[in-house]
Design goal:
mainly alpha, single chain, 0% strand
Length: 64
Amino acid sequence: MSSKQGGKAKPLKQPKSEKKEYDEHDLANIQKKKEEEKALRELRAKASQKGSFGGSGLKKSGKK
């Protein structure tokens, strides 16, 4: 082999992760996180329908 290798180097293979066993507390936290994410996506969708906030951009003060 030469010292110069062309192309991209292949990444090393990662060992397969073992399946984790969750207890009731962990499952409750995962479920809560999924529900919060779902609510956040719904809020984003609702906000995108209305358009921009205010619509006038930055407000200037009356002072000079």
